[in-house]
Amino acid sequence: KDRVQVEKSAQKQWEDKQLNNAVQGSDYDTIKVEGSEEYEFVFDEQAFIEFSTEDGDSLSPGSNEEVALTELESRLEKETARLKSIHETRKSLPVYQYRDDLLNAVKEHQIMIVVGETGSGKTTQLPQYLVEDGYTQHGKLQVACTQPRRVAATSVATRVADEMGVMLGKEVGYSIRFEDKTTPGTTFLKYMTDGMLLREFMIDPELTNYACIMIDEAHERTLATDILLGLLKDILPHRKDLKLIISSATMNAVKFSEFFYGAPIFNVPGRRFPVDIHYTLQPEANYINAAITTVFQIHTTQSVPGDILVFLTGQEEIESAQQSIEEIAHVLGDKIRPLIIAPIYANLPQDQQSKIFQRTPEGCRKVVLATNIAETSLTINGINFVIDPGFVKENSYVAASGMSQLLTVPCSRASVDQRAGRAGRVGPGKCFRLFTKWSYFHELEPLPKPEILRVNLSQVVLLLMSMGIRDLVNFPLLDKPSIPTLSKALENLYVLGALNSKGAITRLGHIMCDFPCEPQFGKVMHTAATHEKCKGVLEEAVTIVAMLHETSSVLVNSRQDANKSGIVGQVQSDHMLYLEIFNAWKDMDYSRSWCLDHKVQYKTMLRVRNIRDQLWRCCEKLGLAALNEAALDAGNPLQDVEARLTRSFIAGFPGNIAQLGSSGYRTMGRQTGGLTVNIHPSSVVFQMFRKESKKPTKHLLYQRLVLTSKEYMRDCIPIPRENWLHDMLPHLFAKGSK
Ligand code: CDP
Ligand code: MG
């Protein structure tokens, strides 16, 4: 083989590839031949090969050069095949048939609602069609597609970048909180969480950079999606050139159309095979065990190949189910065919997410353990069996008591029907519901309750007010929150100091808005930098806030007993534990091996570090870092760091304080008289009060309430002195209050 011949062949394959799917600037790795560093073959975008040999151009058979060329050729072949198959797959999706009709409809109407079966190609294809149709004006403008979930935004962006043959983060990117994988000026197709678009509204209320916005998964009715629809309704009349596509599962479509003055509904008929529904005869007491049993029943009795999708409510359930299934499979050994367990939940590190999309090898069966995320936002191919316990974890807020709880509640009928549909994409499927038929017809609500009707609205109210929207009652919304919920939100913001007594947003309120996190955390950081009795601990506060954003996945096994395997010395609160873990890691130069040794998730810690850096930059921009610095300069080493931090958190979370009574801790809801709550066993405070017989403090601050078998407080910090409450929250706690 000589050089010319190889070049020709490469050129030819390159051209074929261009034909199959226009690939611009696809970057090939340098091919290194084992045992030889010298010969590097680079296939670059000009489509020729550069190579060097010691003795000229001719290659002797069996030489390193020849091996490298063969490898190069086989890689090219594979790449061409891959691109061909992507192209075919794109053409085979149900939306493809309607491509022209869809584009015509977009041309004609400013607002359109697209309804279609999950997996029909709405999320991955529609934005690409818009790009292909020239809406971005050669990359000058952007097309955005919002997702309620981070995992969906990242995974779809990865897929689409792949389909378009570009690098993720360049032409196609994603933007989720604390992670911006886009390149300004280059990215023209952007997948993002609905919350991120909401933030962009704050910076640019006219969304001038965008040509088209697709609000995807609108039927999920997340808080951010609902607010976005309201804001868009506001600006569309004077942004005539901005196109809005709302895409939704069938439920709710009419409601969206009515909201937007009767906007047309475009239906993409999907293919769907029949799904047999099976119910249990009795209610199941333990749905996780029931789900695991069902997995093995299916695996051992159903001869048809086909993967299993199990809907669970969260990471902990998924981890525990995965462990049980693996143990049972291990015991059964080669009596059963191999099972591949693939978990998927919001906090799953990105490199592990791809497992759910990988083709199941012949003779094996894949079991996908998923949260609600697999209900509509992610399409997993090859599923024939769905196991549905019928539960979902939902945030729920009771305005009267001012309390937010994460509750495991029964799904709606619309949701369980969506879930069942996941079994019928590749062929006839089966869905095993772990509840009774009676329950389906008589107990389940018809539709899920929109988030806006069940969450604390403080953050959103503050955001709207910072954008100058004063008349909250008349702000256009699909479902209006009740007046008591709104007034409670205003009251909370007043207590935090974000609003003044006239209801106008304060300087502190604006600062809280500028932080990319809940206003309460903004208040904590502001207090840690500026309050007379706290200042000087901003850096520590930022670290803790960053850790609190990821606590559920810091430790390798979230169920592991959390005195957290002697990572750090004695600490008095979870907050201090998080601080110590981070600092210990930082002292070891952020090393990977330290994480391995201490069973801490390295990837999570990298995310924490990234969040921390961003929060810190925000503190610098807002001038808080300088104020903090001044406090540090003033004296000797800072005294009472822990007390200062505890005080800062009290200032930020006045609603999260529990008081010790005769029957344990109770929340301090003023109207309800409180709810009995327990310290979660994984908390270091639990260990401290129980095992070391240290006297429980009269007050305790918690970050989250979780309801499982009991009401649990997670991430706790004891308040050793009562007067701290008065110091930090004088309007709520009288001096010497009991
Ligand atoms: O949005 P919709 O549910 O209508 O479909 P989609 O998410 O655009 O998915 C279209 C196709 O792309 C499905 O067959 C998915 O399995 C596939 N896909 C994939 O293979 N990997 C992803 N990360 C996302 C989608
Ligand atoms: Mg979709």
TrEMBL record:
<dbReference type="GO" id="GO:0000398">
    <property type="term" value="P:mRNA splicing, via spliceosome"/>
</dbReference>
<dbReference type="GO" id="GO:0071013">
    <property type="term" value="C:catalytic step 2 spliceosome"/>
</dbReference>
<keyword id="KW-0508">mRNA splicing</keyword>
<keyword id="KW-0507">mRNA processing</keyword>
<keyword id="KW-0547">Nucleotide-binding</keyword>
<dbReference type="GO" id="GO:0022613">
    <property type="term" value="P:ribonucleoprotein complex biogenesis"/>
</dbReference>
<dbReference type="GO" id="GO:0005524">
    <property type="term" value="F:ATP binding"/>
</dbReference>
<keyword id="KW-0539">Nucleus</keyword>
<dbReference type="GO" id="GO:0016787">
    <property type="term" value="F:hydrolase activity"/>
</dbReference>
<dbReference type="GO" id="GO:0071006">
    <property type="term" value="C:U2-type catalytic step 1 spliceosome"/>
</dbReference>
<dbReference type="GO" id="GO:0003723">
    <property type="term" value="F:RNA binding"/>
</dbReference>
<feature type="domain" description="Helicase ATP-binding">
    <location>
        <begin position="103"/>
        <end position="269"/>
    </location>
</feature>
<feature type="domain" description="Helicase C-terminal">
    <location>
        <begin position="294"/>
        <end position="468"/>
    </location>
</feature>
<keyword id="KW-0067">ATP-binding</keyword>
<keyword id="KW-0378">Hydrolase</keyword>
<dbReference type="GO" id="GO:0071826">
    <property type="term" value="P:protein-RNA complex organization"/>
</dbReference>
<protein>
    <recommendedName>
        <fullName>RNA helicase</fullName>
        <ecNumber>3.6.4.13</ecNumber>
    </recommendedName>
</protein>
<dbReference type="GO" id="GO:0003724">
    <property type="term" value="F:RNA helicase activity"/>
</dbReference>
